[in-house]
Amino acid sequence: MIFTNKSSYGVKSDMFLSNINIGYVNFSRVKIKQGTTAGSAFSVDENKQLSLIKSYNEYLERLFLGIPLSTNKTISSVNLEKNIVSSRKYSEFGYGNHEFGFNDTTGTSSGKLSEVIIQKALTELIEKNEVFCFWYGLKGEKLKQDKEIHDLINDYNFISNMFKIYVVRELSNYSTVIVMGFLEGKLLTSGVCCSITMEQSLILALKEAKGIEWQTFNNPLAKANKFSDKLHKQILKKVKFMDETYKVITKDSIQATKYIETADWINHVEISVIGDDINRGVKTIKCISKQLLNSVPIKINIERQKDKEIIKRYLIDYSIDCPIQ
After folding, report:
1. The pTM is what?
2. Euclidean distance between CA atoms 40 and 56, whole angstroms
3. What's the CA gap between 295 and 275, in Å, rounded?
4. What digits encode the pLDDT tens for the residues 202-257?
């Protein structure tokens, strides 16, 4: 990064955010037949250096997802559920439509420690599919917002003035926390995280929501700012229905578990190294599944792969496209 123009990366400074930093990067892109890979990324952390490092790792994930599409070589992959090694086309782990469905950055992770990045890739794949179960399958529980949670939200100095927090545990024994932030009755931001403890999932989901809010507010190109008033009302109506029907739980009601276990019906989650930054010792890996969605759960992606087992099991309410980013 020392050879990059200083304006291509940085940390957002805000006199009201004494302990929260938003690191951002905007680097080179890969041009492929399907289009151009994303060149920007952001991350939120209490540590300025870590916010930049995490942003750069996020950028690497997006960059390396474009590279497999330009080669015909094969690579080795491992089914995490069955410990079976396979040989796949490198392109199967890149962007677009492939044998196991449509791929985006879902289930991608970068870092130095294999154990850590494998866990992160798997939990990210799980969390996006838990969002599918939540939004289209009406699965989940409502998290009671006690004083400690209110104080935690206030620490991030959100612009949003109303928050809804849900927990989903359909696909694993880890808690996936979904945060939705509203301003004047309109959805402004969201954050999702699946992690080893409820507390960690909540904190990371709030950090993601803060970063997305920063990108969204006063940005006419942001997804949430393109929603019609009618759609905002439909989203709020659905959220109110969830509030009234979902079981309410406290943050202490779910016991932490060290090792992740997926639902019994999930028997295929395949992982492979798709990029290697030799200079920094950082690897990028991609996790895909023939049973789960390998992309964000929006309608256009679901239409591409209706034969997926998760869709057959959980799709109930398809009336409103998922607004959770």
Report:
1. 0.85
2. 9
3. 19
4. 999 999 999 889 888 877 767 778 889 999 999 999 999 999 999 999 999 988 88
Is 89 inside any structural domain?
yes
d(Cα 271, Cα 19) in Å, to the nearest integer? 35
Please indicate, yes or no, whether residues 301 and 236 belong to a single structural domain of this protein.
no
By C-alpha distance, which of 316, 314, 295 is closest to 305? 295
Residue with the bigger pLDDT between 61 and 307: it is 307
Nearest to 198 by CA among 250, 247, 163, 259: 250
Gyration radius from the chain CA atoms: 19
- In the structure encoding, which two tokens stand for residue 260, read together? 């992740």
> For residue 59, what pLDDT is reported?
63
Query: Which of these, 102, 80, 130, lies nearest to 285 by C-alpha position?
Result: 80
Q: Which residue range forms the structural domain that includes residue 243?
A: 134-247
Residue 254, in any domain of the structure: no
279 pLDDT tier (thresholds 50, 70, 90): low
